[in-house]
Amino acid sequence: MIGFPESLRFEISEPIDQCVNWLLINLEGLFDAISRTILSIFNAVEWVLNILPWWVVIIALFYAGWKLYNLKTGIVLSVMLFCIGLFGLWDLMIYTLVIVIISVMVSLVLGLPVGILMAKSNLAKQIILPILDAMQTMPSFVYLIPAVMFFGFGKVPAVFATTTYAIPPLIRLTYLGIANVNREVIEAGKSFGSTSAQMLFKIEFPQALSAIMTGINQTTMMAMAMVVISSMIGAEGIGEQVLISIRRLEVGQGFQAGLAIVFLAIVLDRVLQGAAVRLKETE
Hints:
The chain is mainly alpha-helical. It has helices at 13-26, 28-51, 54-68, 71-86, 90-120, 122-137, 144-151, 155-179, 183-191, 196-207, 209-230, 238-248, 251-282.
């Protein structure tokens, strides 16, 4: 009577495994096509970033920080990026940045329509919100399991796991941005005979742009956090250096790689936040 009765035991692991096996057998071609597409995009983005001289990237970042904030911020951000190069992690930073960029791009393609759908449909909101709650409370390591099952090890599963982990904030803030558009503005648009598409793209979307930019910022930060964990499934980049340092107990190397990740995250955060503030000022 003290222990939980064995007769009431029911495990969901077996049905889930059966479902995954069915997907692997019947949708193998689809997963291969997705893998080839992501790999092609990855190689293209990596090539573009690699042909840019390091000093051009630093100057561009300095200019962005200067224009979005002030001269001091531009100097600080460019020095942070320069330090990553001093640590000997520039190429690995590019690799990490490619994963983040692609994950954010995919999140935009998938997340914006879902967020808009939630704002337009109460039924969709009731269905999707619990899913987002579950995704945001799920331990990040769990996302590595389906990524490895469907795509193996390497770049593609890293992008898949990072995107899945990072997309919920963008969906939520897109929904909140569209749903909280001033009703008077919407009524004014309707009174002038605007169609649903015109209302969305010319009134609601511009009004919600600052919230959406905040969602992009949060998604980018979550992608940065997940990239480090993705090193466990074969993703290279700075996160791999942290993992290697843990295995070898190399405290200095681990601290250096961790500091580079912090610098990169701060740079991305400040640039995106500055862009969001500028968009809000122009509304």
